[in-house]
From TrEMBL:
It comes from the Eukaryota. Residues 1-20 are annotated as: Disordered. The lineage of its organism: Eukaryota, Fungi, Dikarya, Ascomycota, Pezizomycotina. It comes from Aureobasidium mustum. This is Uncharacterized protein.
Length: 99
């Protein structure tokens, strides 16, 4: 998502806040608009069964596509979240953040 945000054609939404990994993860986890628009509301569908069988099978067999099926965890279902968040923290606050 971070990379897609950089190449997004509506550059007005391509802001540092909207590209911040922690902000993106929080918005995905809580069903908020990716660009922080308060008037865009989303409903969470618990135990959604209206998913292609391929997605469900891959999730059950290999743990793939978690971000499509389970966004409740700290990582919002994304595999690369830890590295992305650590990258953002390091470049925003420096190595002293970890001390």
């Amino acid at each position: 998502m971070h990379t897609k945000m950089h190449s997004f054609s509506h550059q007005g939404w391509n802001t540092e806040e909207n590209r911040d990994s922690r902000t993106l993860i929080n918005r995905v986890r809580h069903g908020l608009d990716l660009f922080g628009r308060a008037d865009e509301l989303y409903d969470k569908i618990e135990d959604n069964k209206d998913v292609p069988s391929y997605i469900t099978a891959q999730y059950e067999q290999k743990g793939r596509f978690k971000y499509l099926l389970d966004r409740d965890g700290e990582d919002a279902g994304f595999d690369d979240v830890s590295a992305a968040v650590q990258h953002d923290i390091y470049f925003k606050y420096g190595s002293s953040f970890y001390s």
